[in-house]
Write a structure and sequence with these properties.
single chain; 170 residues; alpha+beta; Immunoglobulin-like; 2 domains; four-stranded antiparallel β-sheet; three-stranded antiparallel β-sheet; 3 helices; 7 strands; 36% helix
Length: 170
């Protein structure tokens, strides 16, 4: 069983690709739970009769929030999901890093303002990389909420640092 999630088109869509777990399943319910607010978006994905594979694009505007940490699950009608996987949608943090990088490019000396911008960019970058690594380590079939809490804490800390220097959507 393959279950892949990608954020595409500048965080406008989540692309989900999955092969069926149950050889008789014709569709699956996909749930996307915001791990910060616990709000859930659900939809169905049809499997191709010949290949047993499904493809679904979900606009991020359908979610409770466009950015953050989400738990994405595939369920083929059983009491428990067939697979769950964490998803980090981080374009808001990427925009913050872009702004901080632009500030650093504009610095003409080793002034305190430049040192502060560099330190902030380093913290945000390291938190984001650590959160992304946790997503990769978690992999498929993750129901242990410890992974989700860890990813969410790192994302929220990076966002808190970035809230002081607004990014792309200000």
């Amino acid at each position: 069983m393959a279950f892949n999630i990608n954020v595409v088109n500048s965080c406008k869509f989540i692309t989900i690709r999955s092969s069926r777990y149950d050889p008789t399943a014709t569709q699956a319910t996909i749930t996307v739970e915001n791990m910060d607010t616990n709000q859930t978006y659900s939809t169905t994905m049809d499997y191709d009769a010949g290949t047993g594979r499904g493809l679904l694009n979900i606009p991020t505007e359908n979610l409770s929030q466009k950015y953050g940490v989400f738990k994405v699950c595939v369920n083929e009608g059983t009491p428990t999901p067939s697979a769950c996987k964490p998803l980090l949608i981080k374009c808001d943090i990427d925009c913050c890093l872009t702004k901080l990088t632009d500030e650093l490019i504009d610095c003409k000396c080793d002034c305190p303002k430049c040192a502060s911008s560099l330190a902030k960019a380093q913290k945000v970058f390291l938190l984001l990389q650590s959160a992304q690594s946790a997503v990769e380590i978690a992999g498929n079939n993750i129901t242990n909420n410890g992974y989700y809490i860890d990813i969410l804490e790192k994302y929220k800390k990076a966002r808190a640092i970035c809230d002081e220097s607004c990014g792309c959507d200000c």
